[in-house]
Design goal:
By secondary structure, this protein is mostly helical. It has 39 helices and two strands. Helices cover 70% and strands 0% of the residues. The chain has a two-stranded antiparallel ribbon with strand order 1-2. The longest helix has 31 residues, at 166-196.
């Protein structure tokens, strides 16, 4: 009978222990009551188990927070009684008194009796517990005890805490040190408990303790201690129960590093040491190590990555956090998962926003795009995520487009820049309807469209933004007007219809004048207004607006170029010197950009010596040959809307004209590109990113040599350019100019015709073809070519001058007089001589 009774008691104890580990408290209480009835000698153990079960069962439903204090005081009296009975002498003999005191501390904390809770922990001698192996349930009890002790120390203030005496300050420091030590011990025991318990949850108390110790270090000014604490917790071996905690800790550590750690303040983490294996026949190493019975296991390995600086650590933390957030995202759109979906989305968005801040700050835009692409699967209809993605894709679309010198050349279809622009526009069209009142997003989309050459789409976005800001007189109203004006300015320059051109010019001038009225400190608005005045031939107004632009921002590249172009209209005296000084100033501000050198070479040809211009042209070629791996910002000189700043000069030689938005020009550019790529594939060579820019630099040198009378050198420069871009209409045009300078008019005519075959609306080729016909004596063909050029570009004086010569040779004096009068009328409207129309490099 005795052995049978002992076996029954042992069975009860086994079932009770299993129920405790599984947190099945009602079953544990029932079994404890049966144990008490069957075995009176285990009464103290039964009292402890009943009190523990009632306490934990209550706290599972009503966590220990301030809102539940009154309820706890009413409903935990029975649990208090049982636990108090377990602290008597019989309980001490049974070995449950210590645990009973610890649970009474937890009970008093739930009831708001913080001092009584600390008293119970003092009776349990919690501060002097010996570190030894503990069962899983005991690990949780001790971990919660340390956590609650720290919380009670934080809640209950000393009577003399506000005193300034040395004694009170000493006590306060001692109290804070004990509080931090309690939280640190609790966090280590919590991590160890979660590693050993298969499917346990930490609970509110233990989660608070895990995050509290680093915050207290930060409050005390010990930033490195806080960082080390975060690292200690993050290097612990992950378990199912710690995944959500690791996400929170990784995000908090990334925030601390981004806000408070820079340069020499940062200290890289130390790699966890791994002891070599004792055996000589195996090379296996332990992947996890533990420093003591109360220390959690940590990751360790010979190939473990250790960040070297704060940038690597922040990006690593955020990438790991983003991976965990995406993994835990709720994909179902059912109403029953709405709360879980919102919670997971909030966690993911918080990490993605931090990753965007860190990555964009350090130039890693690709990481942001990849992260937002992964977020698309669980962010259906989320305005914030779609807005972030639209901004990121617009920035990515601007980056390759900015590699070309201003004005921006619309990227050819099929190129990487073109694909990025298409992607940016597609995302913007999805994001804009979600963000109904967001004018800034529409302005970003408009700027991306302008850079890609989609003028109508850009105007549509800009006008939507204007419709949002205008009724409420918003802070972005001036910028909305500026973007509308830029769109109509580009539209006026690309159209051939006189009615459409005049309407676009009128709208552009009106909105730009209103923009500078609303914001008289916006250099971009003044710049585009000056550019519009120059297009309309209002040179005095253009100079006033240029001065206002440079006053607002002295280093504005577009303003410096406009100033030099306007001052160069008088090629002698102080204005010419001012133009040269402005070009040199632009060169100083943008030393890695090639457009200041091109402009400076043209001005030096006018005001200085030809040798100086050639030297500048050679410096430009050397700059382009020096490196093919410079950043876009260095290549462009400036990377904001200034990339649009020099849009659409009346420079028909411009490289922008080769990729014009007109249908026939776009087709011509595609033909040229296809021919060039075909020639490259036949020759087995690969075109480098700067090949086209180097070709235009050679053409600039050819132009300079022609103006200096060095025809042979000019032919050599054209040959170099032809080797780089053999089917460029600009190469054919310049070769025709070389033949014309050598009086080889038949060869010149063929070159100009070939250029027009590739680019039918290239105005300079049309004019020079008319000159070649005139030189060959084919007067009617010359008249036809020049009249077509006059219809395409009626504001060019040299076209009407040449037409006057042709008509005079044909014996039509009245028509010749009309053409000459038109040339005289247009000549003062030229902002600068023809020499400044650097057709080989877009200014």
């Amino acid at each position: 009978m005795t052995s049978r009774s002992k076996n029954a008691v042992r069975t009860y104890e086994t079932e009770i222990e299993k129920s405790r580990e599984e947190s099945n408290w009602k079953k544990a209480v029932d079994l404890a009551q049966q144990l008490k009835a069957r075995s009176p000698q285990h009464e103290s153990l039964a009292h402890f188990l009943i009190g523990e079960g009632k306490l934990e069962d209550y706290l599972d439903e009503w966590p220990p927070i301030k809102d539940n204090i009154e309820r706890a005081q009413r409903e935990l009296s029975e649990a208090r009684g049982y636990l108090t009975l377990a602290t008597d002498e019989a309980g001490k003999k049974a070995g449950v008194a210590l645990d009973a005191h610890l649970l009474l501390g937890k009970l008093n904390y739930a009831c708001g009796a913080y001092d009584e809770s600390l008293k119970q922990y003092k009776l349990a001698e919690l501060s002097t517990l010996t570190e030894k192996e503990l069962p899983v349930r005991s690990l949780r009890i001790v971990a919660e005890s340390y956590a609650i002790k720290g919380l009670c120390l934080e809640q209950s203030a000393l009577p003399g805490a506000g005193s300034t005496s040395s004694t009170s300050r000493y006590k306060q420091a001692e109290r804070e040190a004990e509080m931090i030590r309690s939280f640190e011990l609790s966090s280590e025991l919590t991590l160890l408990y979660l590693q050993r318990a298969a499917a346990a949850r930490a609970g509110a108390t233990l989660e608070t303790a895990l995050q509290r110790a680093p915050l207290l270090h930060i409050r005390a000014g010990r930033l490195h201690c806080a960082i080390d604490r975060y690292r200690e917790m993050l290097t612990a071996v992950e378990s199912v129960s710690t995944q959500a905690l690791r996400l929170t800790l990784a995000r908090q550590l990334a925030e601390v590093l981004m806000r408070g750690v820079t340069g020499q303040v940062y200290k890289a983490p130390e790699k966890v040491a791994v002891l070599p294996s004792q055996g000589t026949l195996t090379r296996r190493r332990e992947e996890h190590v533990s420093e003591g019975p109360w220390k959690p296991r940590k990751y360790a390995g010979i190939n473990q990555f250790v960040p070297r600086n704060e940038y690597e650590e922040v990006v690593l933390l955020l990438l790991v956090g983003e991976a965990m957030a995406v993994r835990d995202a709720v994909l179902s759109q059912s109403a029953e998962f709405e709360a879980a979906r919102a919670h997971s989305l909030h966690n993911a968005v918080a990490v993605i926003d931090l990753l965007a801040l860190a990555s964009v700050r350090w130039g890693q835009l690709a990481l942001v795009l990849e992260s937002l692409e992964r977020a698309m699967k669980f962010s259906f209809g989320c305005v914030h995520v779609w807005r972030q993605r639209a901004l990121a894709t617009a920035a990515a679309a601007r980056t390759p487009a900015a590699a070309a010198a201003p004005p921006p050349t619309p990227p050819p279809p099929g190129s990487a820049a073109w694909s990025a622009g298409v992607r940016a526009l597609g995302v913007a069209r999805r994001a804009v309807p979600l963000a109904r009142g967001d004018a800034a997003l529409r302005l970003v989309a408009a700027a991306a469209c302008y850079r890609a050459g989609w003028i109508e789409d850009g105007i549509e976005f800009a006008e939507e933004a204007l419709a949002i800001e205008e009724p409420r007189d918003g802070p972005l109203l001036a910028r909305c007007l500026l973007h509308v004006g830029i769109g109509h300015q580009m539209k006026a320059q690309k159209t051939n219809s006189r009615i459409d051109k005049d309407a676009a010019n009128d709208t552009c001038l009106r909105v730009l004048q209103r923009a500078v009225t609303l914001d008289d400190n916006d250099h971009l608005a003044f710049y585009h207004l000056a550019l519009q005045y120059m297009h309309l031939g209002m040179l005095n107004e253009a100079m006033d607006a240029t001065r206002a632009c440079l006053t607002a921002r002295a280093e504005c590249g577009g303003g410096l170029r406009l100033a030099s172009a306007l001052w160069a209209s008088a090629c002698a005296g102080p204005r010419a010197a001012r133009a040269l000084a402005a070009a040199r100033l632009a060169r100083q501000h943008y030393p890695a950009a090639h457009w200041p050198l091109a402009h400076l070479a043209a001005l030096q040809l006018l005001t200085d010596t030809g040798e100086a211009a050639l030297a500048t042209g050679k410096e430009l070629l050397k700059l382009l040959n020096s490196s093919d791996s410079e950043t876009e910002a260095e290549q462009n000189g400036y990377a904001e809307l200034d990339a649009l700043s020099d849009s659409q000069h009346d420079d028909t030689h411009s490289n922008r004209d080769a990729a014009s938005i007109r249908a026939e020009s776009a087709g011509a550019f595609l033909v040229e590109r296809a021919l060039s790529e075909g020639a490259s594939s036949w020759s087995g060579t690969r075109r480098s990113p700067r090949q086209h820019q180097r070709a235009t630099a050679w053409l600039l040198l050819a132009d300079l040599c022609l103006r200096l009378g060095r025809n042979t050198a000019a032919a050599g420069c054209v040959a170099e350019a032809a080797a780089l871009t053999p089917y460029s209409h600009l190469v054919l045009y310049t070769r025709g100019m070389v033949h014309a300078a050598c009086n080889e008019w038949e060869e010149a005519r063929q070159c100009f015709q070939n250029a027009l075959a590739i680019h039918p609306t290239h105005l300079d080729s049309m004019v020079q073809l008319g000159a070649a016909y005139y030189a060959l004596g084919w007067l009617r063909l010359a008249e036809r070519a020049l009249r077509a050029a006059g219809a395409l570009g009626p504001a060019r004086a040299d076209t009407w001058r040449r037409l006057a010569l042709v008509l005079g040779a044909l014996g039509e004096p009245a028509a010749a007089a009309d053409a000459a009068a038109a040339a005289l009328h247009l000549q003062p409207r030229q902002p600068h001589p023809h020499h400044l129309h650097l057709h080989h490099l877009p200014l």
